[in-house]
Write a structure and sequence with these properties.
The chain has two domains: 97 residues, Sandwich (Jelly Rolls); 122 residues, Jelly Rolls, CATH 2.60.120. It is built from one helix and 19 strands. The strands form four sheets. It has a six-stranded antiparallel β-sheet with strand order 1-2-8-3-6-9. It is globular and about 55 Å long. It starts with a strand and ends in a 5-residue tail after the last strand.
Length: 229
């Protein structure tokens, strides 16, 4: 299921099964489990050879909140016996030695509410941020701001409340765990914690601005939960 398709990046929700054919090298992937456990295999040997690069087999387990980077030149496969739902961000991912991060563990150690960068290239940024409902400000991004491109906010833990102002009309949207909000370019918005405890959000935002002739991104505005069947 595609959530967004933009110039240089796309976001999908995947439901991997127990078996899968390998995906050939090409566009890199940022894979994050939203529900259940999955396994990412990067396949080495001659079958995984691209130009003059040679890579060994690599395996990573995706638990909820774990982000795995799959570089452009990898041949890879995603499987699950656990009914996993995986967020897949397709974009240019250069080869790097650091493959995997536990976003929820990083978030729980974070004391303040400002965003922390997880990944960035010329077309997209991926950040996470934390809100603690019992702290002053109760914020994730407690100030009103606008993004130059489409912004997607995913709630990984806890709950948030989003406030948006489109055409001067304020809207309040509760965002429980597992939900997503798509905010079009130029729409003022802010987020705050929706309850007590540690709340963790993932922010995926374009960096190129609106492209002439592209579909009206305001039609994407709205919230849904990827966990609904």
């Amino acid at each position: 299921m595609f959530v967004a398709r933009e110039a240089g990046w796309a976001v999908r929700l995947l439901r991997p099964g127990p078996t899968a054919d390998p995906t050939p090298p090409g566009q890199g992937q940022l894979l994050l489990s939203l529900q259940g456990r999955a396994v990412v295999d990067e396949i080495g040997g001659d079958a995984g050879k691209v130009v003059m690069t040679q890579r060994a087999d690599q395996r990573g387990e995706l638990r909820p909140g774990v982000l795995r980077r799959v570089p452009n030149d990898a041949r890879w496969r995603l499987t699950s016996d656990d009914g996993a739902i995986v967020l897949a961000i397709g974009t240019s991912v250069p080869r790097e030695t650091h493959r995997q991060e536990d976003v929820l563990a990083l978030a729980r150690r974070r004391r303040h509410m400002g965003p922390r960068l997880l990944f960035e290239n010329e077309v997209v940024r991926v950040e996470f941020s934390v809100a603690r409902g019992r702290l002053p400000g109760r914020g994730w991004v407690p100030w009103t701001h606008e993004a130059p491109d489409l912004e997607l906010a995913f709630v990984l833990a806890g709950a948030f409340v989003a406030r948006t102002w489109e055409d001067g009309s304020p809207q309040r949207t509760p965002l429980p765990t597992g939900s997503m909000l798509a905010v079009p370019a130029g729409v003022p918005h802010r987020f705050s914690a929706g309850g007590p405890g540690v709340c963790v959000g993932l922010i995926v935002s374009g960096r190129m601005g609106r492209i002439d002739g592209s579909p009206d991104r305001r039609a994407l505005k709205g919230a849904f939960t990827p966990f609904s069947r």
